[in-house]
Write a structure and sequence with these properties.
heterodimer, A: mainly alpha, two-stranded antiparallel sheet, 2 strands, globular, B: alpha/beta, Rossmann fold, Alpha-Beta Plaits, 2 domains, 6-stranded mixed sheet, 4-stranded antiparallel sheet, 11 helices, 13 strands, 36% helix
Chain lengths: 280, 325
Amino acid sequence: MSSRAASLPEEGRLRSLVDFYSTQMRTSVVAQLQYRAANYFYMLGMVAEPVIYLVVWSTIAEQHGGAVNGITAGQFAAYYIVWTLVRNMNIVFGAPFWEWRIREGRLAGDLLRPLNILHYDLAYFAGWKFVVVGLWLPIAVGLSAVFHPDLHPSALEIVVFIIAIWGAYFVRSMFQATLGMLNFWTTRGAAVFDLYMATEMLLSGRLVPLALMPGWVQTLANFLPFKWTFGFPIESLVSNLSTRSLLLGLGAQVMWTVIGYVLFTFAWRAAIKRFSAVGA
Amino acid sequence: MSESVVHVSELTKVFKVPEREAGLRAAGKALIRRKTRDVHAVEAISFDIEPGEVVGFLGPNGAGKTTTLKMLAGLLYPTSGEARVLGHIPSRREKHYLRRMTMVMGNRNQLQWDIPALDSFELNRAIYRLRREDYLAMRDELVELLDVGDLVRKPVRNLSLGERMKVEIVGSLLHRPMVLFLDEPTIGLDVTMQKRIRTFVSEYNQRYGATVLLTSHYMADVEALCKRVIVIHHGQILFDGALANLANEFAAYKTIGVLLEDGSAELDSYGEVISRDGDRAVLRVPKAETSRVAARLLSEHEVLDLTIEEPPIEDVIEMVFAQSR
């Protein structure tokens, strides 16, 4: 082979991966800053959901002498204001968007590159978080001024919370990506995605704090991934969880991230053989 | 003889396509028993490409060109047969392989739409694990070769189709691939831009000794770049050889251009007159009779000039497809 055709030398693997994450995250921030106004309206729209829950539960709490199952209006406020941050942190490349990625030929472009496809999404959305957290801060201040949250976290809880919101991001990324593989078998996966979302709403603490759910639901939630993407990060900051519970929660996030990654890897290997590169 | 860069043997791709009649009854039946049809996009094709070759891959829409390219790029799993590129099996999508090849799809945009191409280039640097000094040198060289200049600083969405294609090519070649799969790289571009991209591909091939497999509906691309062509139709190879030999093998006629002293001379008896402009005429004559007709013209008329040519490559390709029907 011609020596002129030799490829360029490569940087080391780990260094390159760190370099890729920082570059992709920067690129994501640059792209998102192009749409500051759109992002802000999106954030405002997203806040509507927890505000509705918050108003409903605060009203119920007042009607029940100031608390529901021991949760006061101030604690509800803390729960749902932290909810808004956790929700923004666990937004990932959703399963339904895999259909768009395939149809638009984006997947073909990604497959031509020498990098696991998960890295693109993890890095891109991780960068996006820095933009939305910046936009979230004034919203959180506004909500706090109106609803007076009862929030007094310890230093340990703050540290665990910061780790847990990233843990939630990874767990949710893995399971949404695995679910997204369904798009390689059918273009009508919406019903399955909706079922998954509904289950997540109920068993994650997104719709209702898990403490208000029946005991068997709480037990079931402990053995499924959903709680570790919503309820646990919120409770790590707003509830007085024991140090053991905090560490067990982080451990559960690591475990579900690994399980999700293994499931994704198997599903991906099968899915990619079915890829017909339509739209590419 | 050197080892082939691309080796394809009995490569086949069959797609299963769902199929049903129109109407409610057929829709109901499809619920119980889904009918599918096998579409043989590529059928047992074989060829080899040597290092540094630029090969044109020709065929009408649906012939199997892009499917073959996608199998070679690792985007599609073959149904059967063997493909090896640079010693790798493409469908395994090994990172070492992906770092040494590229595929440019003329109708697809792989750069990020909302940001300047420079940002996407930077991302490719990280993805391909390029050393910064190598990346900068290669980027600047490509920017200069394609005359992209400040275009790389504009958001991609603000570029014209031709400008976008040029920056797309820069982005695809930053890692200096040894094999280029170019799928309609000049589609939709104006003549000047087509020429620019052709010149660039030729320059890249010569500068780096890269191997190129190119599909294009523009014969000017093929004539300018490819000494060898592979013609594919209905998933099967109809011709694989020198572009110059294509006409010899498939064209049933040649064209004779004459410039006569007497512009009113009757020429119908020599062959089919395909154009006449005063003293000039172009005749289409059966290949076997070309010499005899030319001799008759020279002996029976005052001929000021006479040329014998193969038919245009577009016509030859059309003949190839017509003969395969």
